[in-house]
Amino acid sequence: MTTGTNFDGTAGPELHLGEVLGALSHALDMTEGQPKGHCIRCAWIGMQVAEALDLPPQMRTDLYFTLLMKDTGCSSNAARINELYMMDDLAFKRTFKRVKGCREGMPFVLRSAARGASPLTRLKTLRHVIGHRDEIGQELVRNRCGRGAEIARRMRFSEEVAEAIASLDEHWDGGGRPLGQQGDQIPLLSRIALMAQVTDVFTLDFGAEAAAREMENRAGVWFDPDLVRVFTSLIRDPGFAHDLLSPELEQQVFSCAHALHTAEVNEDYLDEISHAFSLVIDAKSPFTHGHSQRVARYTRMICEQLGLATCHTRWMTRAALLHDIGKLGISNTILDKPGKLTMDEMDIVRKHPVWGYDVLSRVGAFRRMAEVIVAHHERPDGKGYPYGLQGEALTRDMRIMAVADVFDALTADRPYRDAMPLEEAYKIMDKMSGTGIDPDCYAALQDAITASGWPATSLQGDCEWDSLAQVSTKSGQQSA
Questions:
Q1: Which of 113, 217, 260, 347 could be stapled to 85 by a disulfide with Cβ–Cβ 3.0 to 4.6 Å?
Q2: Using one digit for the tens of pLDDT, what is the confidence trace for 233-245?
C-alpha cells in the first residue's frame, strides 16, 4: 500500500494493488464476454478453496493474483476468433466457457460459425475449422496463455503466477492445451483457477447445484478429483450462491490480506501496470496495434511543449496508455469490419469511452483519470461523443488527449495502408482546428514534432511490437 500522486503533484488516495487490479479486471471480463466481476468472484472462490486446503501464505497470494489476472491474455486471440469462425468473439468466448470439449464444443461451432454468411462461405468456414480444429485450438490457447504469462511477468508477479496463467487451460487427463500437461504436472494454482472459473460461470447461469454436478462430471477428465471434492463441498454450502452474488463481495476481495501484501504500489509500478494493460488493449485488434503507446507518446510531447509539470505529464501519459480500455468490450466483428460501420455498430463504438470510465473510476486514484479518458472523442464544437461536451466543459487535459488520438489515427501504419504523410495529416487537422480539435494543443503538437525531427517512423519505430496481435485480417477497416 502507498499513497498515489495526483496530476498536480499533491498526495492522492491510498493505493492497494488488489483494488487497482480488481478494477482493471473488469475490462478483462468485458473482453471475455463475462458478467461484471467474473475475475473478482473467481478470486473469492479461490480464496475459499485455499482456506480449505490450508495453503501457505505465499501460495495464497500467488493464487489471488492468478485469479484476478488469469484473463490478461484474452484479447490476443479475439481478432483470430472473429476471422476463423466469422462470429462475435465475445459471444464465442461467453458460450464456449459453458461447453465441454469436442462433445459439446463441435456442435456449438457447427451451429454458430459463419451464421448469416452465404451458404458457400459458411461451408468453407466449417470445413476449415473442422479440418484444422486441433491446430486452431492449440494456436488460440497458446496465444492467450502465453501472452497472459508474459504480461504477468511485466507486472512483477512471481514466476508461479506466470506459470499458473500459462497452464490455465490444461486438463487433468492430458487433453488440455497448450502443453498437454496431465495430473500433478499441472500447477496447483492453474487447477484451482480453471475450476474457479467454471464454478462462477455455471453458478451464475444455472445455479450452485448445477455447478457442483459439472465439477463431478469433469472429475478425472478436466479436473483433479481430489480438488473436485473440495469445490463441491464449498459450492453445496447453503450460503455459497448468496455470498457469491453479494454486493459486498468485491470489497471483501479487495480488503483481504493478499490484496494488501505485495510490492509497493508506487509511481513506477503504476506506470508498468498501465503499460502492461496498454498491451492488452492494443492486442484486441490488429488495426489499432500500438495505438495506445503512440497516443501516450504524443500526449507526452504535447504536455512537455505546453510546459506542464513533470508529474502532470507523467500522469497524462499513464492516462493515455489506458484511454481505450473500454474497447475491450467491443466485438471484433465491429473492430475488424471492412468498410463502413452501420449506425447500430457506431452506437456501440461510441460507448467505449463510457465503458472505460466505468472501469477506471472504480479506483479512487484513477477517478480523475477516468474523467479525462471518457472525453478523448469529444470536440470543441460539441459534435463529439459520448456526451457532446463543448467549450469550457472540455478541460485542457481532455483536449490534449483528443489531439494526440486524432493525430495517431491519421499517421499510424495500418495493415491496409501506409502511414499518412505528415503534410496530408496536417491538412486534415488544419481543417479541424478550432471546431474538431483544440488549436493550442494542435500547435503544441506541431512544434513538438518539428523539434523531434519527423518522419513519423522515427516516433513510431520504438513502439514495442506485439507479434501475437498480428493476425491475418481483411483490409479496408474504418477507423473508429
A1: 113
A2: 999 999 999 999 9
Q: Please give the model's pTM, rounded to 2 decimal places.
A: 0.85
Over the stretch 147-176, which tens digit does the pLDDT of each residue have? 999 999 998 899 999 999 999 999 999 999
Q: Are residues 324 and 363 in the same domain?
A: yes
Question: How far apart are the C-alpha atoms of 287 and 415, rounded to whole Å?
Answer: 7
- The catalytic residue among 70, 93, 284, 327 is 327
CA distance linking residue 250 with residue 263, whole number of Å: 21
Is residue 327 flagged as an active site residue? Answer: yes
- Answer yes or no: do 213 and 94 share one domain: yes
Handedness of CA 25, 354, 315, 74 (dihedral sign): positive
Do residues 180 and 147 both lie within one domain?
Answer: yes
The residue type at 279 = L
**Nearest 5 degrees, angle CA 334-CA 336-CA 339?**
80
Q: How far is CA 5 from CA 11, 204, 312, 390, 406, in A?
A: 5, 38, 9, 28, 28
Question: Residue 400 falls within a domain, yes or no?
Answer: yes
Query: CA-CA distance, 376 to 141, in Å (whole number)?
Result: 33
Distance CA 449, CA 407 (A): 11
Range of the domain at 120: 17-264
> Is there a single domain that holds both residue 429 and residue 287?
yes
